[in-house]
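Translate structure to sequence.
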């Protein structure tokens, strides 16, 4: 599976935002015989065929069984990452230069974003000469920005005690010294050389680290990149979907790729939205599934919520429960939490560990220190909303939520193998 490691950096580079990620995933799925569907159009489904639907930064893909559905095998991930987002009117003139105002999206490790070359990427909404509204995805790395850090000579206390950043005051990236050249607005000035349009109506634009993914270690056994959380999990799920060759018989394998997990999932395309139910309802209607049968299907189903896990960091040894250390290169992590911040139960965890053992894959269990509350995933949200048994799993990762994160290559290969087998075993 070395080709998977060759492909993952490319996938990361092509997916600087959630919209780019779903576009890239859609293209990849189409290349392996998944047909696109549109939510606001009539669907003409066919048993044994594979489909996907994109709604903004979210995507759902599935393979229809040849016979009536009895259960589902679901893989749930998310497409967004902690970031800095441009404000609607970002231009700020200060000290003879143009800076851009940003908001914090999710919970990025802010110090990792300073003194780093940053591109602008996302989507823009424009009107053309015929007054038609168009959406375009953009990535501008030809005019990099940088958030300048204060020299230690001017703040010796901060230099001694550690960097503390105020999101409003300390995160302004410097854009240009040529203020006189920006007569139509900075964003429009970036767009004009690359895109023909009449008016710029609105935009959702993020700052994105330009540094490319890179293998680390003596034998390239680790990978460093921006947006590993959670695009690495999305990539593994995509690999598993692409490995579906024959039509399943009675199981419905699905990949759920949600946007906005990092900000709570309470959006029209988040895990708490009606997106899954809208797709699932149309599938069950196609199979003429009764309301009673629909309940039975959900109760026979299993979902794997796949997200990254806090790897043990040797620089912060006291932050971990040493009986449950998630280690790089030591296998797939099954995540537990007594307060169900992770959705794993003994029953769903046993399914994962048994599957790992059958494939001769390494696996490990993770729980936070009892005096440190856990993060969470889409797993508990989805299982609560739909009543589907769920397990939270993933690869261990260093520097989670930083502008540069690290995983083990072997862990990713193993995750791809596990998810592939999970979708195929769902029909057994």
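Result:
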């Amino acid at each position: 599976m070395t080709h998977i490691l060759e492909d993952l950096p490319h996938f990361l580079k092509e997916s600087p935002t959630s919209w780019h990620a779903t576009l890239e995933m859609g293209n990849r799925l189409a290349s392996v015989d998944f047909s696109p569907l549109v939510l606001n159009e009539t669907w003409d489904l066919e048993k044994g065929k594979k489909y996907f639907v994109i709604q903004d930064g979210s995507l759902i893909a599935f393979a229809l069984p040849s016979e009536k559905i009895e259960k589902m095998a679901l893989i749930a991930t998310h497409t967004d990452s902690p970031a800095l987002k441009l404000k609607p009117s970002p231009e700020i003139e200060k000290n003879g230069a143009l800076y851009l105002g940003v908001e914090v999206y999710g919970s990025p490790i802010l110090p990792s974003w300073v003194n780093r070359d940053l591109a602008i990427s996302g989507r823009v909404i424009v009107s053309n000469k015929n007054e038609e509204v168009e959406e375009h995805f953009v990535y501008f790395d030809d005019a990099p920005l940088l958030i300048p850090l204060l020299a230690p000579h001017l703040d010796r206390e901060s230099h001694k005690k550690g960097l503390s950043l105020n999101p409003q005051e300390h995160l302004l990236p410097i854009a240009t010294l040529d203020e006189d050249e920006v007569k139509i607005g900075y964003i429009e000035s970036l767009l004009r050389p690359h895109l023909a349009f009449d008016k710029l109506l609105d935009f959702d634009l993020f700052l994105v680290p330009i540094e490319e993914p890179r293998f680390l270690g003596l034998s390239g056994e680790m990978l460093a990149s921006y947006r590993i959380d959670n695009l690495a999990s999305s990539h593994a799920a995509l690999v598993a979907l692409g490995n579906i060759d024959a039509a399943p018989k009675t199981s419905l394998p699905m990949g759920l790729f949600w946007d906005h997990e990092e900000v709570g999932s309470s959006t029209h395309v988040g895990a708490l939205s009606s997106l899954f139910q809208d797709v699932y309802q149309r599938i069950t209607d196609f199979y003429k599934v009764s309301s009673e049968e629909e309940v039975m299907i959900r109760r026979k189903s299993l979902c794997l919520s796949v997200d990254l896990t806090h790897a043990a960091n040797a620089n912060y040894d006291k932050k971990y429960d040493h009986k449950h250390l998630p280690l790089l290169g030591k296998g797939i992590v099954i995540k537990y939490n007594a307060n169900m911040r992770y959705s794993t139960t003994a029953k769903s965890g046993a399914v994962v560990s048994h599957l790992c053992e059958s494939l001769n894959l390494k696996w490990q269990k993770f729980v936070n220190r009892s005096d440190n509350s856990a993060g969470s995933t889409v797993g508990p949200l989805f299982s609560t909303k739909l009543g589907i048994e769920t397990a939270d799993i993933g690869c261990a990762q260093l520097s989670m939520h930083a502008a540069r994160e690290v995983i083990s290559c072997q862990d990713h290969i193993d995750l791809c193998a596990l998810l592939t087998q999970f979708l195929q075993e769902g029909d057994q």
